[in-house]
Amino acid sequence: MHCVRKVTENLYWVGANDRRLSLFENIHPIPRGVSYNSYLLLDKQTVLFDTVDWSACRQFLENVEYLLDGRPLDYLVINHMEPDHGASIEEILLRYPKTKIISTEKAFMLMRQFGFHIDGRMEEVQEGDTKSFGKHVVTFVSAPMVHWPEAMVTFDTTNGVLFSADAFGSFGALDGKLFNDEVNFDRDWIDDARRYYTNIVGKYGPHVQALLKKAGGIDIKIICPLHGPVWRTDLGYFLDKYGHWSSYEPEEQGVMIVYATMYGNTESAAGVLAAKLVEKGMTNVVMYDVSNTHVSYLISEAFRLSHIVLASVTYNLGIYPVMHNFLMDMKALNLQKRTVAIMENGSWACKSGTLMREFLENEMKDMNVLEEKLTLNSAMNADNLPDMDALADGIIASMKK
Ligand code: FEO
To answer: Where is the Flavodoxin-like domain (predicted)?
Structure first.
């Protein structure tokens, strides 16, 4: 059965939701599912903007067929070729033999790599090209590395709709509510939107900044992303979030304590630090056990907050492996401009603090590692209290600068 929503005059959401997939890209947990958004414009010519993941193809095809109501599909605009959007391209070509694909040279190259038969079906566009579909005239804007090199966005100059590809997307399936003003985004969606952005596109902040600059020059009224809600009000709210994330500026002053503990002693010390920070007036403190928190959540929180405390046991004379993985992920996603405090533990040959400092200072960009450090030998005791107080004071003092 078809399941569509009207976006604005002549434009419809024809995407689908996936609540069965547990790991997006087979790596990021999506307990709330994900939506694959596709949009159909019914102008003098009919135009489909992107497709969906293969897993959602049946629903998608029913939606398209219903709205076309016997009309041919003239164009398929592909803004992004990653298979969560591009996997159903060939099925569309098979069912609609006159459809032409509009996309970039790189996207066509990728389609061939994925084994699609597209010869004779291509219409290549470049930055700034325009095309009229009747009443609607669109402009194509390249958006390389947001989030693949072939990506573009399409702006409909007639109604101010921006088909933004992965940009402005979010994890989370749509439960009937399509628009941002139909949900409480700041309460129910922002954490998944941040986790989506930071883990999927976080590495490419400068490219997102370039796209935001281009977007600043056009009068956008509606943003139609490829995942999550469509934006038709309060665009500034989400643009501001994107401004922070893509420039690696924290959203909030606050402390994220990430601890690696084997028998609970490092966790206990991390708890003491959290309590001291709160007592000293910094109540925006969150604690995460690195071993049982998926790293995608840790990355998201690291992008949100200004301060990170890394508390790690020493393991095989190195950093605890799961903590090391978190560090490598932060580096891979280009996180920078954070203040970091270090707590180390080791029953003998305590090394993790020195190694974490070296990683932060030598492998990452613009990380301010506080001089104050707490070293524990097996478990915290009263002798550690002065260093613990100094660590808490150092964190608070660094916020006042
Ligand atoms: Fe939602 Fe980069 O694909």
So the answer is: 255-396
Residue 126: CB atoms within 10 A of its CB come to: 10
Question: If you measure from the C-alpha of residue 289 to the centroid of ligand 1, how many angstroms do you get, rounded to a whole number?
Answer: 29
Q: 0.85 cut: is pTM over it?
A: yes
Answer with the one of 247, 275, 292 that is the final residue of a domain.
247
Give me the domain span that covers residue 181.
5-247
Residue 236 main-chain phi, psi, to 5 deg: -60, -35
Residue 371: CATH number of its domain: 3.40.50.360
Domain count, the chain: 2
Contacting residues for 232 by C-beta, under 8 A, at least 6 apart:
8, 179, 180, 181, 221, 222, 223
Ligand 1 atom closest to Cα of residue 200: 2
Distance 330 CA to ligand 1 centre (A): 20
Asked if residue 388 and residue 286 are part of one domain, the reply reads: yes
Q: Which atom of ligand 1 is nearest to the CA of 165?
A: 1
Residues 117 and 192 in one domain: yes
| pLDDT recorded at residue 273 | 98
How far is the centre of ligand 1, averaged over its atoms, from the C-alpha of 299 (Å)?
A: 18
Query: How confident is residue 41, by pLDDT bands cut at 50, 70 and 90?
Result: very high
Question: What percent of the chain clears pLDDT 70, i.e. is strictly above it?
Answer: 100
* Pocket of ligand 1 from Cβ distances under 6 Å: 80, 82, 84-85, 147-148, 166, 226-227
Nearest atom, ligand 1, residue 148 CA: 2
Q: How confident is the model at residue 238 (pLDDT cuts 50, 70, 90)?
A: very high
**CA nearest 226: which of 163, 161, 138?**
163
